[in-house]
Amino acid sequence: MALDATFHDLKGKSVFITGGGSGIGASITEGFLEQGAKVAFVGRSDATAFCDQMEARHGSRPLFIQCDITDTDALTASIEQASRAHGAPSVLVNNAANDERHKTLDVTSDYWDWAMAINLKAYFFAAQAVIPGMKAAGGGSIINFSSISYMMGLADYPAYVTANSGINGLTRGLAREFGTDKIRVNALAPGWVLTEKQKKLWVTPEGLEAHVARQCLKDTLEPEDIVGGVLFLASNVSKMMTGQALVIDGGVVVTG
């Protein structure tokens, strides 16, 4: 993956990413490696082969820590491990999520708790874990992945849509609370990004055609299309931007 811009201040920075071994997260990991950052990431599935690939391609190996982010203690321990290896993270990317389709009338209390745990609770506790180190270092950047689903009011996954709206509120609250510590907190809301998971489970020709028709830009979104926005929010280039939601969706929510 070759980017058109270099963010020089990201070189050597300690970056922690949730879900950094597949889909959009894998592209984000590679994007930071290309900038010379020290990257640690967590994921449920073994990412050894991906790390081998990144090391061969960039000469730098990301630190992979296998972890279920719904286990708060394990998530916190993973951030501590990354801090010992690379120094306290100055950039946190809360990327991991699960947009499993479900019907309102089928949702149980346990399912709701699981959906909130993976799509919202983990974001809060990852942020809580990195903030002390960022404060000590004189600042940092937290990037919370949301999506345009709550802006569009999409059906078929109400718990996910609820969590995405909550991420926007969490982002604004943390930005206000920790702005005096020079910790910036922003959300990034992608449109329909065609990851392998999306293609396998939910993309249909007619559904994709209808969605692209709503976009101002008529190209489909690929994982690498999101990376530039993440690097921008992580870099001091955006040093006076906080509490905002950056939308990368080809122009869907602009036009409705």
Automatic annotation (TrEMBL):
Organism: Roseibium litorale
Family: Belongs to the short-chain dehydrogenases/reductases (SDR) family.
Protein keywords: Oxidoreductase
Name this polypeptide is given: SDR family oxidoreductase
All copies of domain Ketoreductase, residue ranges: 13-195
Gene3D superfamilies, alphabetized: NAD(P)-binding Rossmann-like Domain
